[in-house]
Specification:
Layout lengths: L7 E2 L7 H9 L4 H10 L6 E4 L12 E8 L3 H11 L3 E9 L9 H9 L2 E10 L5 H7 L8 E8 L4 E7 L5 H4 L9 E3 L2 E7 L2 E7 L6 H19 L4 E6 L1
Helix pairs in contact: 3-4
């Protein structure tokens, strides 16, 4: 199992289209996948942008949402604005994917809400997405091809980490859904501390079962304990 990712940057360095094409046409072995997972900067760093300084109030509102690529940033921002959310535990966020307008959806959503964020890559997408997305964008190259999870916050994000839930590779060496999705990476959770509370946004393996997700949950809880110790913790996510 790979180690948690702690290194941060203000802007992820993404693999070129040539590098992604080479990965897509090369050996689909676990060894090849492990090399890409450890060598591509976007898979070994977290992107962090801190919010404007603000005092933490006594009461905050937390929202959790699988935003499904975040294809509609203005509409998504409006829903979250109406919810009064101070912290958003977000899953399925795109960066440079044709299906979501090549946007950096986490950054754009955070800017619309006046928040900071931490974004981590779950997968480098070597295709354009599921069959419906592929039918629309097969001829449109992804600018960056990143897909992941995020925490958005009005208050400073501390001790951020990406917590791997599996060794990854099953979406590279095989075809779990037999629908053409081809990826480098693995399921994971994003964690950060805000005001002394640990917040975790988790995205489980959809092509698994209750037992498999229980294993991933135990892995996540063990990593939270190792990385953050005992203390208040808010966890939210889905498949």
């Amino acid at each position: 199992m790979r180690d948690p990712v702690r290194e941060t940057t203000q802007s992820l360095r993404t693999p070129s289209q040539d590098a992604r094409r080479e990965a897509a046409s090369g050996s689909r072995s676990q060894q090849t996948h492990a090399g890409l997972l450890s060598n591509w900067d976007c898979l070994t760093h977290l992107e962090v942008q801190q919010p404007a300084p603000s005092d933490l109030p006594a009461t905050i509102t937390v929202a959790a949402w699988n935003i499904e690529r975040c294809k509609r940033v203005p509409e998504t921002a409006e829903v979250l604005r109406q919810s009064g959310a101070d912290i958003v535990l977000a899953t399925e966020m795109d960066l440079g994917m044709a299906r979501s307008g090549q946007r950096h959806t986490t950054r754009d959503l955070a800017e619309a809400l006046g928040m900071g964020y931490v974004f981590g890559v779950e997968f480098v997408e070597l295709g354009t997405g599921d069959p419906y997305e592929t039918s629309l964008f097969a001829q449109v190259p992804n600018d960056h091809g990143l897909h992941g999870n995020a925490i958005l916050s009005r208050y400073p994000l501390e001790n951020v980490a990406l917590l791997p839930l599996d060794d990854g590779g099953q979406w590279f060496t095989g075809t779990p859904k037999n629908d053409g999705q081809f990826r480098i990476g693995g399921r994971m959770a994003i964690a950060a501390q805000i005001g002394g509370v640990t917040f975790v946004s988790v995205h489980y393996e959809s092509e698994s079962d209750a037992q498999g997700r229980a294993v991933q949950t135990r892995r996540m809880l063990d990593l939270i304990d190792t990385e953050y110790g005992l203390g208040p913790c808010v966890i939210a996510g889905d498949l």
